[in-house]
């Protein structure tokens, strides 16, 4: 699996000289869980919509394996359906996109749309609903009878049921309570461990530090960094340049460093790895 952006510019119709994406170049290869971070308006949602050709570059090109997405109208994008089967995108607040009259039908809609038989689509839908933690008692309910968080899970199941190779997520935990948020992240980690690659926009830096294998850092439409999260978050200069707040975890890590613990911060991604590192220092 490889995603390449080559000198990608994107300009919305109403933008004059401004580019929402400004000369973006990067590669993601192999098996990854990439975080896309940056201030509000930095271009995160614009960037990820290029990965399944919902948006096409104004200049430059995007490659997803052997698919090339480039300037609209210049060359017809071939096999767009195949691309959309390969790259599943979950938009911000996907719960607003549910439209079938039952949960099960809604989730089965995706695979059916990709020429899977009705029977198989239902099977895939049930499997996906189980993965997101929605049980059988919900199958025949209307999506509108569910809570916001439940609806979000159903919407995500709708994309998982298509069995994409890459899952692109735009702030999947926005508005969820901490428990639902961790459940959601454990689901994505599970999918990652099963071989899926993921790209996730997030405003939660603790989540990005904990789960992501790479982070793409945007600032005003430019890509500033493409680094491992520990390389980015433990570098104050990078954080300041990108105008990104440090993860909450860093407050405690810095306290321990002040107390002369010789921590190797490359090993610290969350509370449990922090505790392990503290123990290692104590025993050293
Ligand atoms: N449909 C649109 N039409 C015109 N301009 C847009 C449109 N969508 C986004 N923009 C502009 O493009 C820029 C990047 O927007 P984008 O939505 O990609 O930011 P973002 O990083 O996802 O922000 P947020 O964190 O708030 O979701 C912003 O300046 C925004 O105003
Ligand atoms: Mg956005």
The distinct bound ligands, ions and cofactors come out as: adenosine-5'-triphosphate, magnesium ion
CATH homologous superfamily caption of the domain at 1-92 and 202-235: P-loop containing nucleotide triphosphate hydrolases
- The end-to-end distance, rounded to whole angstroms, is 41 Å
Largest beta sheet, briefly? 6 strands, mixed
- The chain-level mean pLDDT equals 93
Query: Measured on Cα atoms, how large is the radius of gyration?
Result: 20 Å
Residue runs with pLDDT of under 50 for 5 or more positions: none
Q: In sequence order, what are the helices and strands, one letter per element?
A: EEEHEEHEHHHEHEHEEHHHH
Strand order in space, largest sheet: 6-7-8-3-9-10
| Overall helicity | 25-40%
Discrete helix count:
11
- Name of the CATH first level of the domain at 1-92 and 202-235: Alpha Beta
- Characterize the overall form: globular
DSSP strand content: 15-25%
CATH topology of the domain at 1-92 and 202-235: Rossmann fold
Q: What is the level-2 CATH architecture name of the domain at 1-92 and 202-235?
A: 3-Layer(aba) Sandwich
Q: Compute the number of strand runs.
A: 10
Find the structural class using helix and strand composition: alpha/beta
Task: Offer a concise description of the structure.
The chain has 284 residues and is an alpha/beta fold. It is built from eleven helices and ten strands.
């Amino acid at each position: 699996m490889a995603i390449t952006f080559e000198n990608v510019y994107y300009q919305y119709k109403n933008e004059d000289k401004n580019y929402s994406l400004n000369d973006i170049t990067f590669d993601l290869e192999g098996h990854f869980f990439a975080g896309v971070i940056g201030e509000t308006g930095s271009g995160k949602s614009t960037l990820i919509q290029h990965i399944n050709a919902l948006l096409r570059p104004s200049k430059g090109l995007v490659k997803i394996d052997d698919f090339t997405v480039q300037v609209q109208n210049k060359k017809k994008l071939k096999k767009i359906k195949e691309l959309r089967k390969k790259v599943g995108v979950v938009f911000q607040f996907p719960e607003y996109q549910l439209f079938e009259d039952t949960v099960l039908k809604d989730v089965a809609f995706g695979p059916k749309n990709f020429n899977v038989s009705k029977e198989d689509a239902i099977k895939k839908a049930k499997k996906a609903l189980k993965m997101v933690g929605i049980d059988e008692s919900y199958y025949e309910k209307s999506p509108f009878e569910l809570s916001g968080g439940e609806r979000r899970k159903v919407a995500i199941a709708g994309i998982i049921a298509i069995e994409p190779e890459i899952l692109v997520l735009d702030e999947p935990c926005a508005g969820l309570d901490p428990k639902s948020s961790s459940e959601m992240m454990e689901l994505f980690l599970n999918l990652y461990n099963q071989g899926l690659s993921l790209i996730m926009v997030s405003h939660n830096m603790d989540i990005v530090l904990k789960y992501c294998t790479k982070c793409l850092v945007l600032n005003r439409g430019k890509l500033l960094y493409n680094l491992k999260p520990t390389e980015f978050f433990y570098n104050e200069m990078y954080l300041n340049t990108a105008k990104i707040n440090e993860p909450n975890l860093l407050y405690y890590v810095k306290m321990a460093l002040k107390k002369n613990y010789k921590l190797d911060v490359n090993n610290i991604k969350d509370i449990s790895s922090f505790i392990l590192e503290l123990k290692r220092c104590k025993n050293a």
